[in-house]
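Request:
You are asked to prepare a plain-text protein record giving the amino acid sequence and the backbone structure tokens, at your earliest convenience.
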Amino acid sequence: MHVFGIIFLFLAAILPLNFWSVQIFGVQTTMAAMMVLPVLIYWLLLDTALGMGIVGAAVLLLSTASIYCSVRCL
């Protein structure tokens, strides 16, 4: 149950940030991706193997949140 709680808390934290679109260096992205990026880099520096797993999970959850937000905006 703890694993599901962490996933839902992460989604709850990034969902509002997905509505905030920013353009950095000519690339359109969301504030959620910008806020998650430093933490993912930190995890990769601490432990590469664990960091890659966390990056994979974060990409999946960021994609899920982005799809949810795009469907809710329609």
